[in-house]
Amino acid sequence: MASQMSRIMRPDDANVAGNVHGGTILKMIEEAGAIISTRHCNSQNGERCVAALARVERTDFLSPMCIGEVAHVSAEITYTSKHSVEVQVNVMSENILTGTKKLTNKATLWYVPLSLKNVDKVLEVPPVVYSRQEQEEEGRKRYEAQKLERMETKWRNGDIVQPVPNPEPNTVSYSQSSLIHLVGPSDCTLHGFVHGGVTMKLMDEVAGIVAARHCKTNIVTASVDAINFHDKIRKGCVITISGRMTFTSNKSMEIEVLVDADPVVDNSQKRYRAASAFFTYVSLSQEGKSLPVPQLVPETEDEKKRFEEGKGRYLQMKAKRQGQAEPQP
């Protein structure tokens, strides 16, 4: 089963330099994934359901997209477990004046089917037909790996980003930012919980503000580490999206983004962590060339620990890219 959608990029999709926001692309990726997953989960007779986003694997922004280009988003279901669907999404940009096309994004998303009668109930997923036997085994390995990482991540990010008065430049406190948003009907599915793409777009906006404050130049999203959705966000909640710099290399910045939901109209439920991820940004000149990034100055022991953890992730990904780039014997 496959699905495709296309849309031209407009000025409100981009930053002041004309580069399309990473959050805009992430939102389109999620919409394509939600459509194909919901179609598949309702392909057999049974209780009707809607697919909800549970996780987005690491995605790299391979090439910037600009105003006036057309984004072509294609989605395909590549694995199903008993209660989840894996969707692979590719994004191509097209210059409609020249006809030139290029791959800008590849993403893997995981969805779970929620009953329309009770959105807290997860239903079973119809099996998918594989073109070759190895696909199912490969998909099962990916499923087990993401399931384990989601459980580890759920309890890793328990702290809250607190404001600090009169912070020094290049410190974590200087660039950290928060956005408070009241969840309205336009943010939600017909069943009263927030679209995953809406949350990701807000997360990218906050991460972009942190990056811009730190380096004071034009910035673009380079990659997003796995985004984990720990719990649904319902209509009427107040969400706080907080971002803080964790690590800088010579030409990139890693920003941790945390989403906390406060069910203000439901006194029976306390504030909870709804989503978390790491975004990586790069600084660009007016000509679109990569610029050096001011080095982050961690002050507290927690900031120094997060810096070292970020450095580990950076070096691990750098080694992986170099390994992929090496010619095969």
From TrEMBL:
Alphabetized GO MF terms: carboxylic ester hydrolase activity; long-chain fatty acyl-CoA hydrolase activity
Matching InterPro entries: Cytosol_ACT, HOTDOG_ACOT, HotDog_dom_sf, Thioestr_dom
Residue span, HotDog ACOT-type domain: 1-117, 173-287
Gene Ontology cellular-component annotations: cytosol
Enzyme Commission number(s): 3.1.2.2
Cellular compartments annotated: Cytoplasm
Gene3D superfamilies documented for this protein: Hotdog Thioesterase
Protein name (record): palmitoyl-CoA hydrolase
Organism in which the protein naturally occurs: Lynx canadensis
